[in-house]
Design a protein that fits this description.
39% helix; Rossmann fold; six-stranded parallel beta sheet
């Protein structure tokens, strides 16, 4: 099918979880010859200098779940102003389709587009439909999802669900060419520890203390790559040194694909991008959901991954050095379990998400029956 060339507007907030899939879709649409614009708020930084073909526009936006009457009133005012700004903008640039990626910054353009009769598509990165996407769900033509089961879908909107997956950066997708390497007897155990965009200060104490409880012979084989933000990195480093553990501690790893490739197990939060990258790379993980995530969506993300046999969920409330050490000792003593989990992770990945998403928007999606978008893939729940 020959695609009609369109002007497609993407709208997303400033956080990486929303902006990365938007960027991946922009690249895919540009490669197909479409014109692409981005509508964001004051925080949005756009896609960088290497995507200069995407024009960035900014409108007013305010959080739709603020606490306190004054804050809610201010957010509502910003939302109304932003919607009027977006209406004027969308008319002036002749937008032909809008794709909203969640976050409050996507609401004004989504609302304005629906008022103007422009087809609206939503992309949800998490296993819980976000509040912005819930608000826009009734106005959308399709709700594209990253997980096979999605909760908090408004009643009556289930038929709009289409499973496309969450786009993964090319540097991670390359890891599919490098299968998981089971820890060798007397070889290194590589542990990758990350905290996601929210950080994970709880990891800074519990993980070093847990690794100190591992038997000496096993402990000497450990190599830890740990993301450490804020103060205390020297204390953490000293704990590792005093226990004979080799460790690389940095606030940010610019070689994350390489470290993920080496990892025998990851210990991390369960944001959508993290889960997607673990599956794409085929690496097992112990997942500790961020307990303050909106609607506890990280727990749902983690359950999707662990129910597939790809890892293990440990809630932060129950996480302590002793229980984590016990888990790691068991896994490193039975490496076939790690190998099986890695295989499950790889099999659970949804490949070609950016292309799948573009196919939906451009009307070229083929239904191959592999991933039916039926009510079996969603569950409804009242918006919190």
């Amino acid at each position: 099918m020959i695609e009609k060339k369109m002007h497609i507007v993407l709208t997303a907030g400033g956080t990486g979880g929303h902006m990365f899939p938007a960027r991946a879709l922009a690249e895919e649409l540009l490669s197909r010859g479409h014109k692409v614009s981005l509508v964001t708020d004051a925080r949005g930084q756009g896609f960088g200098k290497d995507l200069q073909d995407v024009t960035v526009h900014r409108v007013s936006a305010g959080g739709i779940a603020g606490s306190g009457l004054v804050r809610k009133a201010m957010s509502l005012c910003k939302l109304v102003i932003g919607t009027f700004q977006a209406r004027k903008l969308l008319r002036s640039i002749n937008a032909e389709a809008i794709v909203a990626f969640g976050g409050y910054a996507s609401v004004p353009a989504g609302l304005a587009g629906s008022q103007l009769g422009i087809p609206l598509y939503l992309h949800e990165q998490n296993a819980v439909l976000g509040r912005a996407n819930r608000l826009l769900a009734g106005k959308a033509r399709n709700i594209c999802t990253s997980f096979r089961k999605v909760s908090h879908v408004p009643a009556g909107q289930e038929s709009k669900i289409t499973l496309t997956g969450n786009p993964v950066r090319p540097a991670i997708m390359v890891l599919r060419e490098f299968p998981y390497s089971t820890p060798k007897e007397s070889g290194r155990f590589h542990i990758l520890v990350t905290g996601g965009s929210q950080g994970a200060s709880v990891f800074n104490t519990i993980i070093p203390d847990a690794l100190a409880l591992i038997p000496d012979e096993m402990r000497k084989r450990l190599h830890v790559s740990q993301q450490v933000r804020g103060d205390g990195s020297e204390d953490i480093a000293q704990t590792y040194r005093s226990n004979g553990i080799k460790a690389d501690l940095k606030p940010f790893f610019d070689d994350m694909p390489e470290r993920l490739a080496q990892a025998h197990i990851a210990i991390c939060r369960s944001g959508a991008s993290t889960i997607t990258e673990l599956a794409a790379a085929g690496r097992p993980a112990i997942l500790v959901p961020y307990p303050h995530a909106t609607d506890d969506h990280q727990t749902d993300n983690a359950r999707d991954f662990t129910d597939a046999g790809a890892g293990w969920l440990m809630t932060q409330a129950c996480l302590d050095a002793s229980s984590l050490a016990e888990r790691l000792i068991s896994l490193f003593s039975h490496t076939q379990i790690l190998q099986r989990a890695a295989s499950c992770a790889s099999e659970h990945a949804i490949i070609g998400a950016a292309s799948n998403l573009a196919d939906v928007i451009c009307g070229t999606q083929a239904n191959n029956g592999d991933e039916p978008s039926t009510n079996e893939n969603v569950s409804t729940g009242a918006a919190a």
